[in-house]
Design brief:
Length: 118
């Protein structure tokens, strides 16, 4: 399974970006797709998750009300709409997928850089 994250870029604070994560390769029973990020000098943190079977979504507190995750099953793609961006959102954003309700994510994309200037 290959995951291709795209859509990153440079924006000013208050701006918006939409990230995409397209999955390809062998058939994979995806339970959930998640977005994570890693800011310069910091560890990776969870951002958001979509559970495909139910459409359920979950967000980390710092992005609640500003970010929206959605999925297009036909295109095997998950999106992360990011609004009201803040400088602290600056990070490399990664998408990942897993096949089970518990346990680690199985496959990761290479990431896309988001830079928010004040």
């Amino acid at each position: 399974v290959q995951l291709q994250a795209s859509g990153g870029g440079s924006v000013q604070a208050g701006g918006s970006l939409r990230l995409s994560c397209a999955a390809s390769g062998r058939s994979f029973n995806t339970y959930a797709t998640g977005w994570f990020r890693q800011a310069p000098g910091k560890g990776r943190e969870f951002v958001s998750r979509l559970i495909w079977s139910t459409g359920s979504t979950f967000y980390a507190d710092p992005v609640k009300g500003r970010f929206t995750i959605s999925g297009d099953n036909a295109k095997n793609t998950v999106y992360l709409q990011m609004n009201m961006l803040k400088p602290e959102d600056t990070a490399i954003y990664y998408c990942a997928v897993k096949s089970t309700t518990t346990g680690a994510y199985d496959y990761w994309g290479h990431g896309t850089l988001v830079t928010v200037s004040s």
